[in-house]
Amino acid sequence: MVNQEDPRVLRTRQLIKDSFRILLQKKGFDSITIKDIAEKAAINRATFYSHYEDKYALLEDITEVAFNNMIPEQVLHAEEFNGETCNQLILMTYDYIVSFYKTCRMDSKSIATIVDEKIRKMLQQMIETIFSKDATFSMRDTINIKIISAMTCSAIYSAAYTWLKEGENERPDLLLDIARTYVMKGLDLYRNSDV
């Protein structure tokens, strides 16, 4: 069993991650092999496998760590889902998507699908956590919170992704106005309903 706190282990994991990122910029995800990663990191394949099961586990780890590092303190400690929390989530999601597309060559659908699914799952869980602390939602059934969290996550993620794809990269302020208005009006309607 590998001691995850050992400085050598941490250095090797970072070396593997850095090598993988460099390869992602040069090659498509599908064509990267464990041998490529090991050679770039100057380690043997057995060392790679002592840290990661495969390149998919490595990608998931990189995605999760990068996303978690982008979460603003305000969102981590949010007790309610308000306009400012919504703004922070929209900008964080947009910034993550932009940095992801700058890091990776996007000629591979599989990497986009994997990352998209992971980020959506993490974003939805974050929103669900905030809703469960929010007095407006905490009185509601857990299934309602899950459904509203999923819809809120979809609205935020889809807006950020579409904004990047449509080439509006220079105007995240407009993205905020559109997405926040949509999300907050929908939540206001839900809060005031008898559901």
Automatic annotation (TrEMBL):
Residues 33-52 bind DNA. InterPro entries: Homeodomain-like_sf, HTH-type_Tx_Regulator, HTH_TetR. PROSITE patterns: HTH_TETR_2. The keyword DNA-binding applies. Signal peptide: none annotated. Transmembrane segments: none annotated. GO terms for molecular function: DNA binding. PANTHER family: ACREF/ENVCD OPERON REPRESSOR-RELATED (PTHR43479), TETR-FAMILY TRANSCRIPTIONAL REGULATOR (PTHR43479:SF7). This is HTH tetR-type domain-containing protein. It comes from Clostridium folliculivorans.
